[in-house]
Design brief:
This protein has about 325 residues and is α+β, with helices and mostly antiparallel strands. Strands 1, 2, 3, 4, 5, 7, 10, 11 and 12 form a nine-stranded mixed β-sheet that branches. The chain has a two-stranded antiparallel sheet with strand order 6-13. Strands 8-9 form a two-stranded antiparallel ribbon. The protein is globular and about 50 Å long.
């Protein structure tokens, strides 16, 4: 089981970590870039009242990435615009939300369990998408709000390759598609009890691109990123006692995801199971943790990667042109 929630979890904004021998990893990494990112957002008008972003209107996102120090540049997925190959305005705004790298992650909401995802799934006001403004208005947590979740990785694998996904311009290539990460509260939980996190191919750090082959085993991870409502899927039917009465593919508890991932860290204690989501200490960035000798990892995405790599590379041209509302 993940560690017990702290006072900052499940609805309260996390407070800045106090001075300590080992500072919070995410805050340490974003600190040099956060002022620049926020200033640019304010100047561009993308940051609305209360720190929430307004509807995205183009593929240009004027901000420093929250994982800037390890981001892959030039962007390996630069040939595909952030809007992807949208068929209509609904899909255009959906794709932009999937590639929303400019949300304010300086004070994420800490989640020690999946309660928030269950509650969001139960709401009736998250069924229509449109320009997604109603999703951003949901309180206390809505689309675009940045959360930090402690959970176990059930498995990680490349998503929709082949044939590629519309948000990624229907491109068949590992470097051009999302990495799908089902997260569970207990290592042995069925995937129908999982919450999904997705790593966008845009700017994806090299170490992150290996997480399907080097998945932390039996260790909590801490995932940071904005909430996203994915209406393209269907969740499993699960009751309050976690009895599963209907499955889905890909299996999931909720259509609410963490997408895109801004940070991933690993519980770096002896057991790997006793880290608290809001604690500053004991979390190590995945790229640093996986480079340590002797860490236990598993190749959970071998089958999907081999299928993707053996497929004929290619992409379909996007129909139409980019428009602005």
């Amino acid at each position: 089981m993940p560690a017990e929630p702290s006072k900052n979890e499940a609805g309260a904004k996390a407070k800045p970590a106090p001075s300590a021998k080992k500072q919070g990893v995410f805050s340490r990494r974003v600190a040099p870039f956060a002022p620049v990112a926020l200033a640019l957002l304010v100047q561009s008008g993308a940051l609305g009242p209360g720190g929430k972003t307004t509807a995205a209107t183009s593929s240009l996102q004027p901000c420093q990435l929250w994982f800037e120090d390890i981001a892959t540049r030039p962007d390996p997925a630069a040939s595909c615009r952030f809007e992807g190959c949208f068929k209509n305005d609904d899909k255009k705004f959906e794709d932009l939300a999937k590639n929303s790298f400019c949300q304010d992650a300086s004070s994420p909401t800490d989640l020690g369990d999946f309660t928030a995802f269950r509650e969001l799934q139960a709401r009736n006001d998250s069924k229509k998408t449109g320009d997604r403004s109603q999703l951003r208005k949901i309180s206390p947590l809505g689309e675009g709000d940045v959360v930090r979740l402690a959970a176990y990785i059930k498995g990680a694998h490349i998503s929709d390759c082949p044939p590629g996904e519309a948000v990624n311009c229907n491109t068949t290539a590992f470097a051009s598609n999302d990495i799908h990460i089902p997260l569970v509260q207990n290592p042995d939980d069925d995937e129908c009890l999982s919450v999904t996190a997705e790593m966008s191919p845009h700017f994806r750090p090299a170490a992150w691109s290996d997480i399907d082959m080097k998945t932390p085993v039996g260790r909590l991870v801490r995932i940071t990123g904005p909430l996203f409502f994915d209406s393209s899927h269907t969740p499993c039917t699960v009751d309050d006692q976690n009895n599963i009465t209907a499955t889905s593919s890909p299996a999931r508890l909720s259509l609410w995801e963490i997408h895109p991932v801004y940070a991933i860290e690993v519980c770096d204690t002896a057991s790997g199971t006793d880290c608290k989501v809001a604690d500053a200490a004991d979390w190590t960035p995945y790229d640093e943790w996986v480079a340590k000798p002797g860490v236990k990892v598993e190749n959970t995405g071998k089958k999907q990667r081999e299928k993707c790599n053996s497929a004929k590379p290619g992409s379909k041209p996007c129909a139409g042109t980019v428009s602005t509302p």
